[in-house]
Design goal:
This protein is α+β, with helices and mostly antiparallel strands. The protein has four domains: about 200 residues, no CATH class; about 230 residues, no CATH class; about 140 residues, no CATH class; about 40 residues. It is built from 22 helices and 15 strands.
């Protein structure tokens, strides 16, 4: 009992102990923050890799890919019980262009099957239009695409309007009044009959516009909230075009009297809104354009049948012009990676603004690497696609260079479709049977999803080995299934370069911080040694009244352990709240001091990883307590070895 009493007395009355606790707390705090963030990076890469590849990837060393993939998928689902599902995947390379512009970008083109893709990965979680949809497709309901685009336009308008934040109590200047007038003149009042009557408007947009008319001549802190309400109504007004919304945002910027940096952001947002306006009009008029194209094609066929070449050329030109506003069928639709340069950007607050998105068209050109590639076969294939969605895996190396298209479409463009024998000609008795398969259809990879509970780093390599054995048996029965070695690898092996780099950095950080933490151990040792020297007479009294050497040593060991416990608890609590709130803290530092470490406009992670690993935290706490005990061990031994007579004589 006396050990606990003296330990508490020393903790409460010795200021030196506070410095030791502070040293331990700082070491624990720094280690928690650094290790948690690096672990968060590893986890993000893991989620992104599993979202892109699934748990196991079966791939060939050659670009010619794998044949008979559907048969192999059925076989491994039957023979390998751990396999839950699998899906073929094609990965090619090409040039992405935007029609009628000079934009060019090198991209990876991925051919996927939807909704089958969602069964082997977390692909649907990163989608914009179909976020969380269990069975996403390349043909989502048009109403849903329109709704999501309108919501995004509203969010972009809010971003622009936020830059025009009101200075409370300040009135509108003459130029701002002129901008408000232009804004009001831009609104087609005749579209909203409720505004022409004295009755209370029932239409949301009309009500918001009336409120704006009532305050437009007043102070800016009255005007901007009314404008914000009008923008929200305009974004969802079914009868209003995207042009109306964009004009409102531009007029709001003019009325905001902005500094240069804010005006630059607003102009960039407005430029994106112009593209979104085009997409909105394409989506809204898709059915009408399709009907018109059908009529023109019928007219062109009639003109061609009549031999009217001049009319055919005229109608063809009209069809080509109208095709730029058409919504292609599901086989010619694409899902963009969110992060392709120039297609979107992030604001300083991490908000995404899309420039090219659903409803707009892109052109993909690629070299077909599928089979029989020779100098005479290098002929690019080109196809136009309608963007229908985008996908955010939260890893820039993936999102910034990938475009997803339907599997069968890319298979055809990449010369990986099945080949059959030439048709029989009656005059040729020895002609091949047209139903004989000459070369099977191919894919680049097969992505495999294993059953829950088996996707661990320990079990996945074993399952990959079972799939490798299954392929060897399968290939022996299917000649020509692959031209080179085929191997099944885990997602971690596929991403070993990225994952191992981050893990090595984390290990290095562990070593550096552990060395730094030795300072806390030395600090505890010095402080405990000083306390032992100061308490020499007290040690002599304790031994004189019967305290054993082990009991005296226990006092100081408990003292060191208490310093470690209290310091680690303080550091753990501080580190936990710092990591969990690291994003708002980072934003506050940026606003207050202009010091930005994590530039969201550069990094495609919207947020700094802020998950705390409890296993890592427990390890750090145990290490801190052990440091306290080790640091006090030698002073405790010195105290225990003191003789009572010598200790009582100490001055």
């Amino acid at each position: 009992m006396y050990k606990l009493y003296l330990c508490l007395q020393y903790l409460g009355k010795r200021v030196l102990a506070y410095f030791a606790m502070l040293g331990v707390a700082l070491c624990v705090f720094v280690m928690m923050v650094c290790i948690s963030i690096l672990t968060g990076f590893v986890n993000k890469v893991e989620v992104a890799a599993k979202g892109l590849f699934g748990d196991i990837v079966v791939s060939s060393a050659s670009l010619s890919g794998l044949g008979y993939y559907d048969e192999f998928i059925r076989e491994i689902k039957r023979d390998v019980p751990a396999v839950q599902d699998a899906s073929p995947f094609i990965l090619s390379y090409g040039i992405l262009r935007i029609p009628q512009t000079d934009y060019r970008c090198l991209v990876q083109v991925a051919g996927i099957r939807l909704p089958e893709r969602a069964a082997v990965s977390d692909f649907e979680d990163g989608l914009f239009v179909q976020a969380g949809e269990s069975k996403p497709t390349f043909a989502p309901p048009l109403s849903r695409v329109l709704a999501r685009l309108r919501e995004h336009m509203e969010a972009c308008g809010e971003i622009a309007l936020r830059q025009c934040a009101a200075v409370e109590g300040e009135g509108l200047s003459a130029p701002q009044h002129a901008a408000v007038s232009r804004l009001l003149k831009a609104i087609p009042i005749e579209m909203f009959p409720d505004l022409m009557r004295d009755a209370q408007p029932t239409d949301r947009f009309a009500g918001a516009l009336r409120k704006l008319l009532a305050v437009a001549g007043g102070r800016r802190d009255d005007y901007l909230p009314a404008l914000r309400e009008l923008l929200a109504a305009a974004a969802r007004q079914p009868d209003a075009s995207g042009a109306l919304f964009r004009q409102l945002v531009e007029a709001a910027a003019e009325a905001g009297d902005l500094p240069p940096e804010r005006r630059a952001l607003v102009e960039r947002v407005c430029s994106s809104l112009r593209h979104q306006e085009t997409a909105l009009n394409v989506l809204a008029g898709a059915e009408e354009v399709e009907q018109k194209l059908g009529e023109l094609r019928r007219e062109m066929k009639a003109a061609d049948d009549a031999g009217n070449d001049e009319e055919v050329l005229r109608l063809d030109a009209r069809i080509q012009a109208l095709s730029g506003r058409a919504l292609f069928g599901p086989d010619r639709r694409a899902i963009l990676g969110l992060g392709i340069p120039g297609f979107s950007f992030r604001t300083g607050d991490g908000e995404v603004v899309r420039t090219i998105g659903p409803g707009q068209q892109i052109v993909l050109s690629m070299i077909p690497f599928g089979r029989r590639l020779s100098p005479t076969d290098i002929t690019p294939t080109t196809a136009r696609f309608t963007v229908i969605d985008d996908c955010d895996t939260d890893v820039s190396s993936v999102d910034s260079e990938i475009v997803y298209v339907p599997f069968e479409t890319l298979q055809q463009l990449n010369n990986m479709s099945a080949e059959y024998a030439a048709p029989i000609r009656p005059a040729d008795a020895n002609a091949a049977d047209p139903n004989v398969l000459v070369a099977p259809a191919r894919c680049s990879q097969i992505h495999v999803k294993v059953r829950p509970g088996l996707a661990t780093n320990e079990k996945l390599p074993e399952l990959a080995g079972q799939i490798n054995e299954a392929w060897q048996r399968f290939e022996a029965r299917h000649r020509g299934a692959a031209t080179t070695e085929v191997k099944a690898r885990t997602w971690r092996q596929m991403q070993s370069r990225i994952v191992s780099t981050i893990e090595n950095q984390r290990t290095l950080m562990w070593l550096i911080l552990s060395v730094i933490s030795v300072v806390a151990l030395v600090l505890i040792f010095v402080i405990m040694y000083v306390i032992v020297v100061q308490k020499t007479r007290d040690i002599g009294v304790l031994k004189a009244v019967g305290a054993s050497s082990g009991g005296v040593a226990g006092i100081f060991l408990a003292y060191g352990a208490a310093i470690g416990v209290i310091g680690s608890l303080i550091g753990t609590v501080g580190g936990y709240f710092f990591v969990r709130n690291i994003n708002p803290i980072h934003d506050w530092v940026g606003r207050a001091f202009g010091f930005v470490v994590w530039n969201r406009e550069t990094f495609m992670f919207a947020r700094i990883p802020n998950e705390v690993s409890f296993a890592t935290t427990a390890t750090i706490i145990v290490g801190a307590i052990a440091s306290g005990i080790v640091g006090s061990l030698l002073p405790a031994v010195l105290a225990a070895r003191k003789q009572p007579v010598e200790a009582l004589r100490y001055e």
